[in-house]
Each structure stands twice: as C-alpha cells, then as structure tokens.
Design goal:
mainly alpha; 0% strand
C-alpha cells in the first residue's frame, strides 16, 4: 500500500501544479490582453474593457488556485506521510470525482487506496513513530 500512497501523492502534486500553472497563465493572458487593449485604443470603450478583462483574469486566477492548492498541498503531505494527509486526501479525492474524466479516475483510485485498512494501519504506524 505504501507504493499506492506514493503514486496518489505524485499524481496529486502533478495535477495541482498543472492547475496552479493554468491559474498563472489565465492571469498573464487576460492581463496581457487588457494591457494591449489599453495601449492600442484610447476610446471610452477601452476604458471600460481594461478593468473588466483584468478583473476576469484575477477572478479566474483565484478560482483555479482555490481548486488546485488543496491537491498540491495534500499530495506533498501524502508523500511525506503526514498523519493528517490521509483523511484530507480522501476528502479531496471525493471532490475530484466531479472532474471528469481524469479527476474521476484519480478520485476513485484515491478513495480505494486510502480507505483500505492496510493504509490506515500504515499511517497509524507512521504517526506513532513520529510521536515517539
């Protein structure tokens, strides 16, 4: 089960990193478009469009980060075998079931592996050793 936990952690780190990268890309893309519109057009419409485009970019950036950071943080904690990460990643795996098709597969795999008694015993053993 130790190998399954590592695989789940790596997959969550990869997908969380890709989500954070997409968040930064949305911010730069829409910010760049807003900058181009502001620099090229000096009419009243551009004065309205620039803050709207920038606001949409910031909104998408925040939303993407909200959905990506739990996976990234939980994946890193799962790789370090933190005692709280098992329960946290079960919750994240349940939420990933809505991300069709890759998230659904990862969610099912995460729920299957992290709810096994062997995995629970593995984390209980690790938590006990860290406390001693």
């Amino acid at each position: 089960m130790d190998q399954h936990v590592k695989i789940i952690g790596i997959l969550h780190v990869v997908l969380g990193s890709m989500g954070a990268l997409a968040a930064v890309a949305c911010l730069f893309l829409l910010g760049g478009i807003a900058g181009l519109v502001g620099a090229s057009d000096h009419t009243g419409d551009a004065a309205v469009a620039v803050p709207v485009l920038g606001g949409i970019g910031v909104f998408l950036f925040i939303i993407c980060l909200i959905f990506s950071l739990p996976s990234l943080i939980g994946g890193i904690a799962l790789l370090k075998m933190a005692p709280w990460s098992r329960i946290f990643m079960i919750v994240v795996s349940v939420l990933y079931l809505l991300h069709i098709p890759i998230g659904t597969a990862l969610g099912i795999y995460g729920i299957w592996a992290l709810t096994k008694p062997e995995t629970e015993a593995l984390f209980a053993r690790r938590g006990y050793q860290a406390a001693v």
